[in-house]
Every structure is written in structure tokens, then in C-alpha cells.
Amino acid sequence: MLLGLGCTSTVESFGEEQLLPCTGTVHAHGEMDVQPEPVAGWKAVADEAQYPEMARRAGIEGVVVANFIVDCNGIVQQPQVPQGLGGGTDEQALQVLHTTRFHPARIGDEPVNVRMQAAFTFSLTEGIAAGPHVGP
Predict the structure, then answer these.
(1) Share above pLDDT 70 across residues of the chain, in percent, rounded to a whole number
(2) Cys staple from 133: which of 68, 91, 117, 129, with CB 3.0 to 4.6 Å?
(3) CB under 8 Å to 28, separation ≥6 — which residues?
(4) Per residue in 109-135, pLDDT tens?
(5) Residue 98: its H or E element
(6) What does pLDDT average to over the chain?
(7) Closest CA to 24 of 4, 2, 51, 43
């Protein structure tokens, strides 16, 4: 499925880095030759997350699935949690995604925009785990 992403057609800056112009096309996760991966790995993504105190006190455990786009520069765009756990877990997942940089997806040698999902598992005994989510 191809969707539009409001990317610019000019080169932008991200801190000191020059960014590539991204086309407006967003590809489905399965269409890639190379899948996007967090630069520091999924374990580092999980390590950045903090268990919200409100969720801990309320005994909230479970999985938060976030939908987002990784653009051709590896920057997360449009993150959202369509149905969450509450207790601050949804906001924590979104906050971590906002600060996570990815190696972009590729079709051939070209970096492309891709729609994907990530699952954040909150467990009072095991802590927080994060990884790509595949499924409905």
C-alpha cells in the first residue's frame, strides 16, 4: 500500500546533518529490500523507556503497539498509539519513538519512507522490551 507523506523536496538539516529530500510515497513494511532498524538496536530503544510511575502503582502491564513512519532519513514521523494501555505507557512509547533514529528502509540502493509498527511490552517483573510488531 502506498500513502503520501508530507516531506519536503529540498534538503533540510537535522542538527549538523544534511538530510535527503524524501518523496511523498510511503511504502508498506513488507515491500522493502532492507528493513528499517534503530541505529542503536531495539534493546537500546527499550532501555530508553521508563516505566511510568502511574502505571507501576496501578499494576498496568501489557503491550503498547505504536504506528509510525520511518522516513528516508531514518527519522520517525507521525507516531501514534491507536489503542493503548493507559497509565502513561502510551505516552512513554511515543516519547521514546520521537527520539529514536533509524537506519532507513531501502528498495534497491534508494532509502525510502516506510510505514511500520513497534511493540513496547511493559512488565512489572521483566521491565520493558521493544521490537518491531508484525500483525494486525
Answers:
(1) 85
(2) 117
(3) 1, 2, 114, 115
(4) 999 999 999 999 999 999 999 999 976
(5) helix 89-99
(6) 87
(7) 4
- Is 104 within 8 Å of 88 (Cβ atoms)? no
* Cell (9 digits) for 37: 532498524
The cell for 131 is: 521490537
What is the SS3 assignment for 36?
coil
CA 90 to chain centre: 13
Contact predicate 37/122, CB 8 Å: no
Distance (Å, whole) CA 97 – CA 124: 21
Phi and psi torsions of 94, nearest 5°: -65, -40
pLDDT tens string 53-90:
999 999 999 999 999 999 999 999 999 999 899 999 99
pLDDT band at 15 (very low <50, low <70, confident <90, very high): low
**Helix, strand, or coil (residue 106):** strand
CA distances in angstroms from 104 to 53, 54, 85, listed in the order given: 33, 34, 29
Q: Exposed/middle/buried for 79, CB within 10 Å: 0-12, 13-18, 19+?
A: middle
Give the number of C-alpha atoms closer than 13 A to the C-alpha of residue 100, restricted to the C-beta side.
32
